[in-house]
Write the C-alpha cells for this entry.
Amino acid sequence: MKRIGLAAALTAAALMPAVSPAVADYPDRPITIVVPYTPGGTVDLLARAIAPKLTEVWKQQVVVDNRPGAGGSTGAEFVAKSKGDGYTLLLSTNSPLTSNLAVYKSLSYDPVKDFEPVIVAGENSIVIVANPNLQAKNVAELIALAKQKPGQLNAGTSGNGTTAHLSLAQFNKMAGVNITHVPYRGGVPSLTAAISGEAQITFSDIVPALPLIRDRRLRAIATTGLKRAGVAPDIPTLDESGLKGFSITAWVAMVAPKGTPGEIVAKLNGEINRIIKDRAFAEKIIAMGVDPIGDTPAEFAAFLKKEVPRWKEIVQQAGVKVE
C-alpha cells in the first residue's frame, strides 16, 4: 500500500505544471516601475506610494523610473520592449493604453498584444471649474449659456489629446453645445486661465483645482466620473446633473511586458490589491485624487478590450491628431 501511495504521489507531482526557479523566487532582485510622466503628478505619487510597500513585503528594492514623452507613449514603448520577467513594469493612466492609439499617427506598440494586464489600481475624475463671474452655477446653466452663445465660450485644458480635452469633446457632444477648446501647456496654466477669465471654464485634474475651489477663486461645476470623487464628495457628477451615462475618468493601471509568467502577474496583482485595499493606504491615495479600484488580471484584460474602441471613438469625434 505504501508503494502504491508513493507511486500515486509521484504521478500527481509529474502532472503538476512546473514552476521555474525564476518564478518561484520572484522577486530576487530590484523591480522598476516605469511612470511615463514627469515627477510630482498623480501617477508618480501613486507609484511612489506603492513602491515602498512592495519593498517592505518582498525585501527587494522597488524603484520608480520617470520616462515622460508623447503623452505617456515613450514610457509605454520602453516597457513593451523590455523583457517579460516581472522586473520592469508600467504604471500609467489609460492614455498610453487606449486613446493614444488614435491620437498619435503611429505607435510602435500594441496595448492589447504587447502587455500583460496586471491591475487597475484606481481612477481619478476630471473636474469642470468656472470663473466665478460666469453666469452659470451648475451644469444645466452652463449648457443653457453655451447654447445662447455658440462658440463664444472657451474651455481650457492641459493640452491636445489629454483626458481633459477628450472630456470636453464628449461634453460638447452629449450636451449638444460648441464650447471652444483652448489647449495650454499643462494643468496649472489652464487653471490660471480660468481664474483670469481668459478661459471661462477649465477641465482639470481634480486635486490641483481643489484649493482654488475652496478659496472661491474658481467655481466647481461637476466631475466626469459616474461616481463622485472621494476627495471631493460635495461636487456632483455630470451623470447626476443631467448628462446621463457621462463617464470619463483617467484610470491608473499596471501592465507588464508580454510574456511575463502568469504566476508573477498573479503575485503582483495579489499584493497590490492587498495594498490598495488597506484602509489607511486607500485614504492616502484618495487624498491624491485617486479612488481605489482593484481587480483581477482577467477582469482588467476584458475591460481593456472594451476601452480601446471606446476611446478611439471619442478621439475621432473630437478630431484630435498629434503628429
The chain has a mean pLDDT of 91. The longest helix spans residues 297-318.
